[in-house]
Amino acid sequence: IYSSLDEPLFNYFGGEKIAVLLEKTGMKEDECIQHALVTTALKNAQEKIAKKILIEQTTQSAADWFSRNMKTIF
Fold this sequence. Notes:
Shape: elongated
Distance between the termini: 25 Å
Order of helices and strands: HHHH
Number of helices: 4
Number of strands: 0
Largest sheet: none
Structural class: mainly alpha
């Protein structure tokens, strides 16, 4: 799965801090990060969100989904 640090999932789980850290390490914006820790962290974040959603509202985009479904959680 390809994800971007500007996706809504990262906004809820510290994407801004990760972006700063990657910039400090000299990574370029288009570089890919592949590591089991990253995959596990994403999976755990998605599971954490799924446990809190009681009635899911469908949408056309990830940003809309987060704005409709997450406003009652955070």
